[in-house]
Amino acid sequence: MALASEPWCQSAPSHPEDTAAYSYLLGLYLGDGCISAHSRTGHYLRIACADAWPGLIDACEAAVQALNPGKRAYRVQAKGYVSVVGYSAHWPCFFPQHGPGKKHERRIVLDNWQQEIVDSHPWEFIRGLVHSDGCRITNWTEKVITGERKRYEYPRYFFTNLSPDIRQLYTDTLDKVGVDWKQANAQNISVARKASVALMDTHVGPKH
User: Fold this and answer.
1) What is the pLDDT of residue 11?
2) Out of 37, 56, 160, 187, which residue is the most buried by the measure of CB atoms under 10 Å away?
3) How far apart are CA 176 and CA 62, in angstroms?
4) CA-CA distances (angstroms) from residue 42 to 92, 175, 182?
C-alpha cells in the first residue's frame, strides 16, 4: 500500500516495511518529535531524547534508521538532550500529523493505515509514547496495622501530554491491550493497578 504523496514528493513511499519500528517511532514523534523543511525537496525528522536515557537514544536511532528511506540517522548533542535526526523528502508522508504550530493546538488524528499499524503493534506504540512523555515511578503510602505504621511502596506509570487527542490515542491503545488506567489530572494518565503495571513492565518497562 502506498502512502499519500505530499506535493514536494516525486512519488509516494510504500507502506513502512518495518511496521513495528514505525509504531514505536510514531509514539516518539507524537511526544517529542518535529519535522522541518530543509530544502525544496527535503525534510528533517528530529526526536528529542534526554541524555539520562542512553538506551532510549539507541532505540530511537535504530527506529529512525529502519524507517528512513536512506537508512540513515545521526545524533546532534544539545544541552541535556540529544536530537536523533533523519533526512528524507518523505517524512511528512510517513507522519501526516505534521503541520504548523504546536501539536496540542491542532487536531491529531491517525490515518487509517497508521491505525492499522498501531492495532498490529500496540505495545510498540505505547512504548514510544511512554518513552517520550511518560515515566515509571515508585509511589509510597503509609498504613497503620495493629497500631504500627508501615510504609508500602508500589510502582506506577504516568503519561503526560498537553494534547487531548494524543492522550486519547494512548488510552484507546491501553484499552485494547487490557491495561486499566485513570485520569490523574487534566493532562496526566496513570496506570497503578498491580496487574496492569505488570503488563506495562513486561512490554514497556522503565526508561534506561
Assistant:
1) 59
2) 56
3) 26
4) 10, 37, 41
13: DSSP letter:
P
Task: Give the helix ranges, DSSP H, for the chain.
Answer: 19-32, 54-67, 91-94, 112-120, 122-133, 164-176, 194-203
Contact assessment for residue 169 and residue 204, using Cβ atoms and an 8 Å cutoff: no
Q: Cβ(178)–Cβ(172) under 8 Å?
A: no
pLDDT at 33 over 90: yes
What are the two backbone dihedrals, phi and then psi, of residue 125, each rounded to the nearest 5 degrees?
-65, -45
Does pLDDT of 157 surpass 50?
A: yes
Distance of CA 202 to the CA centre of its chain: 17
The residues, ordered by sequence, that sit 6+ positions from 29 with a Cβ below 8 Å of its Cβ are: 45, 47, 95, 97, 128
